[in-house]
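Hi R.,

Quick one: here's the Peptidase S58 sequence you asked about.
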Amino acid sequence: MTGTIVDVPGVKVGHAQNEEALTGCSVIMLDRPSVCGVDVRGSAPGTRETDLLDPVNLVNAVHAICLSGGSAYGLDAATGVMQYLEEQGIGLEVGFGVVPIVPAAVLFDLAVGDHRIRPDRTMGFQAATAASNETCPQGNVGAGTGATVGKLNGFANAMKSGLGSASITLPNGLVVGALVAVNAVGHVMEPENGQILAGPRDDEGNIRDSVEVMKAHTFSPIPPGTNTTIAVVASNATLTKAEAKKVAQMAHDGLARTIRPIHTMFDGDTIFAVATGGIETSVDLIGTLSADVLAEAVIQAVKSAKAAGGLPSHSSIHR
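And here's the predicted structure, written out as tokens:
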């Protein structure tokens, strides 16, 4: 077991990135069409095919999920994932070939690296091609390549974040995993003790509490277009679309435990919940464990990140 989302049966993950431009995308590839739900809590989302996941709508399963940098431009990466799946003959059979169902969400990383280079169809295809269930790299990879946190004292005083993953396995064979690209405006903290791992820095380089910074202003100091945390939680449970949506809702608790503030007007925080099937269990258990592993994945995203784009990381400060 890897301790990451690829421990979930039927799940593979692939990354592609441009390390000079500091952007990339991550693809969750599914061995078979799987039930999926979504919950969008941020008020500035960039998404694709999320309406389709509403329980009242027709299509019941997805073939992959794409998480990407590049803001709205990065949604193009999902087209490359569709191209890969179509070439494999994978997708919804419509009588005139197949239509792969690939929901997607993006984060804003244009403030680092080269904003003229964004994840595109080619990068999405590369990430899909690289998908594996043997390992899941973390840190400055995929959708986390340009991710940052702690922007309430200006972007120059922010810190580098990245992509993280975690999983848990129960004795009955149930596996729950999470994959997250952490691009929060606020700070990231250990939920057990409140220790701030990465956040806004003051002029002396000290990491500050984001909420305390907000209190010092009579207006919102949140800079528009710099944020959004996007994630996928997955399990090998048997769920309906409505139940998967409930799991996605509950999983947001993992973000609330580790990121402050969260779900702001300038965030597009989005969580997809995938169920590959096989284990009968309660929705409440899956939702609770999804929040737990997502919180751990957020911590891993920050601890695995390396300094880049002129910004320090947790690991570069706490060597």
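The first strand starts at residue 11 and ends at 18.

Cheers,
M.
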